[in-house]
């Protein structure tokens, strides 16, 4: 029997805002333990929550970018549970009235060639809702510690339909989702900092069947690669259980990325009953058309749309666009250099290859780069005009990285310009020698510095465009024969 996998992902993404979800204390990472707290975060008696409008803006933006329907009215619900990571004993979340419904994430299907854009498809979303994050527990030999800095941070949950069919598709989905969130400035999605977390629901069914199989939920998948590995492992485990005549039990399993094994955490019988009810401290929110329109106006072009546009508008090959597009700042850098130079393909090559390599070597981010789009454009123009040969262009690029000077300045100072016609240069040199018999005699008498007397007139004749090294060589050659 052949089986097919069915996967749905629940992804938690920390929403980037200055303050927490229901109070003004700062939301941040890396502060001393329990310093980002206040009476609301700690649920002290009488402290009341007030919604952070910016957090909702961000989730509406995410929803609009993903093609979700934005609920005209959403509300806040209490998800009740008792655990030390939550000081209130409930989490403010959205239950039956989430802010975003439907929508999809465009993914690039696995197995495509690395050199051409592969097939794409839309993975359906169920919903996106907004809630508050909980604190962080650390268990050690001396006991367990709790840090409430993360508690109350805005957190959105993006739930997909059981629409993914392989571990590789799940990987592509998370990669695409992460890029979109970063593009929108909605989250940095750094999984190491816990800004993006994923639970994977996995089931199998015989190929051709339409009914869903019993699902197993995998928790603690803390990198995109672990998600892929965890799902692949779970699919194999389920197939082997079924092939041995067993049945899949609905349960939550913990996948250990280090050992590559999973173990059961809890079964369906122990599933929580959260007894959701509307939070009486918070008003429902109405998102009207004007609000949506304002946010829509700030939504960036989606990454895959941009990639298709780079391909059709600039004929930049996929190998280059797939380097540029995932980084929004880098693709903006590219477009500026393409516009300034009028040569998008050459600009794309310099940026995707040389700029990234040099930045990597120097260990600095694009934002700190001395080479700006105008530098790349200037260099591209010099090369295109045949003003400097290829190897010299590399040298100019390295010098631009170091000094931030314009390529023209570097080319002239280093005498790299190949533009001047050799015959013309020789003519100017002859004229300079003919005009200064005394310096010719001095040079012949052994005074080497006398050669400098000819260089001014030659440079004037060349309007400064002559290669100084070449001028020197030509003068010496003519003086030898004179
Ligand atoms: P729960 O209430 O247990 O969280 P949901 O029905 O809300 O379950 O679904 C949670 C996630 O599990 C969603 O991403 C959904 O697509 C996925 N899912 C649901 N049923 C299955 C299934 N049979 N196989 C794989 N994934 C599933
Ligand atoms: Mg679940």
List keywords for this structure.
elongated; alpha+beta; 482 residues; Arc Repressor Mutant, subunit A; binds magnesium ion; ten-stranded mixed sheet; binds adenosine-5'-diphosphate
Quickly describe the structure:
The protein has helices at residues 53-65, 167-183, 224-243, 289-297, 303-314, 318-324, 328-341, 344-362, 373-384, 390-403, 407-414, 422-434, 437-444, 452-461, 468-481; strands at residues 3-14, 69-70, 73-74, 77-80, 90-93, 100-101, 104-108, 120-132, 136-140, 143-147, 154-160, 196-206, 216-221, 251-256, 261-267, 277-278, 285-286. It is of the alpha+beta class. A hairpin with a 2-residue loop joins strand 9 (136-140) and strand 10.
Notes on the structure:
With 482 residues, the chain is of the alpha+beta class. The mean pLDDT is 93. The chain is built from 15 helices and 17 strands. The longest helix is centred in the middle third of the chain and has 20 residues, at 224-243. Strand 13 (216-221), helix 3 (224-243) and strand 14 form a beta-alpha-beta unit. It is elongated, with a radius of gyration of 32 Å. The protein binds adenosine-5'-diphosphate and magnesium ion (MG). Adenosine-5'-diphosphate binds at residues 6-10, 159-162, 201-203, 212-213, 215.
